[in-house]
## 1
Amino acid sequence: MAGRKRTEGKFYLTTPIYYVNDLPHIGHSYTTIVADIIARWQRQAGKDVYYLTGLDENSVNTVKGAAKYGYTDIQAYTDMMAAKWMAAWQALGIQYDGFIRTTETRHMEVVEKFFAAVYKNGDIYKGKYEGLYCENCEAFLVPADLADGKCALHKKEPKMLAEENYFFRLSKYQQQLLRHLEEHPDFVMPKERRNEVLSFVRSGLKDISISRPNIDWGIRLPADKSHVIWVWFDALINYISGAPDYWPADLHLMGKDIIRFHCVIWPCMLMAAGYELPKRVFAHGFFTIDGQKMSKTLGNVIDPVELAKKYPIDAIRYYLVREIPFGEDGDFSETMLKQRINGELVSDLGNLVYRVLTLAEKFDGSVEGKAELDAHLDIRKIDGHIERLEMNRALDAIWSFIRVTNRYINDKKPWKLSGPELSHVLYNLLESLRVCSILLYPFLPTTAESISAQLDLELGTFKDLKFGAFKGRIRKGRHLFEPMK
Ligand code: MSP
C-alpha cells in the first residue's frame, strides 16, 4: 500500500503536530517559522511544495484539558483550541499548504488502514505490559529516560502501568533500520542527533505497546474496540493522512525532544506497513528564555501573538534564524532581538534600501550599466546552506552581499558622480536590491515585497536572479524598519 509516486520537483515538508491542549508558544513557533522559510525557499526555486502542519488531538491530555476548561464535549474543546493555533499561525504569516488534525475522519481512516496493514503483516500482537508511563511524554519510559526515578524531560513521576496491550514488533526491524541509517548519512541530521539515534538502535530495540485499554478518547483499534491506538502511533501517521499524494516527505522538521519517535518508531512503522521512508529528519535545538527554561511556573512562556504585536514579524523571523545556529540550543531574549533590529535590519538593510532609492530618485537619466556587483554573490553557496539546513549560514551569506553592496556605495561615492558613471553605479545598486529581495523573501517576506514594490516590480523567483531585470522605475517608500528603544 504505497502512496502515489512522488514526481520530480516535489518538496514535502512537515512540522510536528503540536498537542492541541497546549497554547502555541515561541518554541512551537520556531519550528513552524523555520519550516515556513524552507517552504518559501523551495517555492522560489520552482518546486511543487507541500508544507504540512497540524495538531495532535487524541492524547489523554486533551481529555484533561477539556475538563480543566469545563468542556464536556471534548471535540468542541479541541475545535476551540485549534482555532487558537490557526490564529497564531495566521498572525505570524505562516503559509502552510495543509493543516491536519488527528480527530479528522480523513486521518482516522488512514490510521485504520495503516494499522490493518501492519496487523496483516503479523507485526502486531497481544501481550501483557508492565512499565513506567509518563503522561506528558505519552510513552512508556526506558531506564535511560529516567533521572532520580522521574521522567528526565518532564521532571514528573511516571505511573506504573500493568496492562494487556497490543504490541508492535519493533525489534524485527532493528537490522533493517540500522542498515538504512548507515546507508543514508543524511537521514537524521544534524550529526549529534544521528549519533544519538544510531547508538539507541545499536543498543537493541524492544517491541513497543501501541494500544491503551479503557480509554474513551482516541482512535479505536480496528482489531479490538476496547482499546484505543497509542497516541504516537496515531499521530505519526498524520504525515501520510495530511498529504497522501506527496508522501514520502522530503523533510520532517522538529525539536530534538521527539527524535526517537521520528527516527526509530516511525521508520519501522513505515517498513511494516510497506511505505517508503521519509528522505530526511532534522531536529533543531531547544531554547531557553533569557537563560532560563521556558515554563508556566516561571511565567516566562512567550506568546508569539503578543510578540508579533510588539515587533515586526520579519524581525522575529530574522532574529530566530540569525541568533541560533540551526540544530543547536539557544536563548531567546528581547534585548538581543532589539539589537538585531537596530543593527542589521535598520542599519545594514533598511538604510541601504533608503540610500539607494534616494540616489535613484534624484537621477533623471535612464539607469543603464554593466553588471559588476553580482560577482560578489554566490547563490550556489547559499543554496548549499539551505540544502544542509544551515539556516543561519544562508542568512549570513545573503547578509555578506548586503554588506558588499553597502561598501560599494561608500567606495563609488555616487553622490560625486554624474551621467553614465552614476547610471552604472545605480544600475548595480538597484539590481543588487532586486536580487536581495528575491533571496530575502523566504526569511523576510513582507520586507522583500516592500523592496520589490519600491523597485516597481513584482517579486521575482530564483529564475530572476541574474542582473538585468530592473525596469528603470522606482517608487520610493518609507524606511523598511523603525529603530527600537
Ligand atoms: N504531539 C507531539 C508531536 C507529534 S508529531 C507526530 C509533540 N507535541 S508538542 O506540542 O510537545 O511539540 C513539540 C515540539 O515543539 C518540539 O519538537 C519543537 O518542535 C517544539 N518546541 C517545543 N518547545 C520548544 C523549545 N523550548 N525550543 C524549541 N522548540 C520547542 O511533541
## 2
Amino acid sequence: MSGLALYPGSFDPVTNGHEDIVRRSLKFVDRLVVAVARNGSKTPLFSVDERVRLLEVVFAGEPKISVCSFEGLLADFARAEGADLVVRGLRAVSDFEFEFQMALMNRQLSPELETVFLMPDQHLTYLSSSIVREIAGFGGDVSAFVHPEVLKALVAKSSP
Ligand code: ADP
C-alpha cells in the first residue's frame, strides 16, 4: 500500500493504455498524482497545459487522482510531494531496458522511492501515444484507443 504515488510520463496524449495502468494502481495506492513531465526532449503535439487538461477530463470524478506537471528530476519532485512510489507501465520487452535503467537511477538518487511496474490488459500492450498521434494525423480512426474528449482534441489538431 502506498500513501502517495506518482505516475509520471509525457501523456501526449493520454490513451486507454495509461488509463488502464492508473485504474490498476488504485488497488494499492491511496492517492495517485499523474504527473506530466515538462522537460521531455520530444517535440510534443499537445502543450503541457493541454495534456494536463485532457488528463483532468479523463479522470474527473476520481477523488484519489490528481493531475499536475513537473520540471526537473522525478526524484526531487517525489521528495517535494512526499510520494513514496512511482508507477510505470510495461508493455513489452522493448520497454524493459529503458524502464530498468530509470528505476535504478531513481533509486540511486532517492533510495526511499520505490518503482512498481504494471502490465496493461493484453489488448492495450501495442498501444502508445505516438502511434495514436500518427494514425490520427493521417485521419485514421483512434476512437477505440482514447477517451472521447481526447479524440475531439486530436481531430481539432489535425484539421487545418
Ligand atoms: P514516455 O515516458 O515513454 O513518454 P508515456 O508518457 O507515453 O511514456 O507513458 C508513461 C508511462 O505509461 C510509461 O511507463 C509507459 O510505459 C506507460 N504506458 C504508455 N502506454 C501504455 C500502454 N498502452 N500500456 C501500458 N503502459 C503504457
